[in-house]
Amino acid sequence: MTGIARDGAVQLVNEMARRFRAGDHDGAFDLLHPEFRIQQPESLPHGGWHHGRAGMVAMGAEFARHWDRAIGEPRVLDCGGSAAVQITTQTWTAKSSGRAATVDVVELFSVADGRIAEIRVFQQDTHALLATLDEPGAGRSAP
């Protein structure tokens, strides 16, 4: 177990963010639990539950079909040793229209066995994000 893993959720979340910002995607994925899953709002094109590294990569690819994104400096809050909350301000710019929306994004992180086991993502205003797209109904339909 690495020193990062022993330090708890806040340190893991900060380390994952650092690795992604540095372009070390493999290193960031190394912090994921073998049974990792991530949830995005169902209304977004990349919405739903995604499992494992492959699921996270596929989710990111679907996101990247629609938007470019700028992410502000993360604020990470400790919710006990096995949980943390990350808050970022993000600007999503639609590739199809050039329109952009800036929203706060709250991510709930859960840690198990010294690795990130789950992320649940909550964008402040998915309607504003979807409105940047050219395609009517570009989001996913509710089940």
From TrEMBL:
Name the Pfam families for this protein: SnoaL_2
Q: Which residues form the signal peptide?
A: none
Q: Which InterPro entries match?
A: NTF2-like_dom_sf, SnoaL-like
Ranges for domain SnoaL-like: 13-119
> Which protein, by its recorded name, is this?
Nuclear transport factor 2 family protein
Q: Which species?
A: Actinomadura craniellae
Q: What is the lineage of its organism?
A: Bacteria, Bacillati, Actinomycetota, Actinomycetes, Streptosporangiales
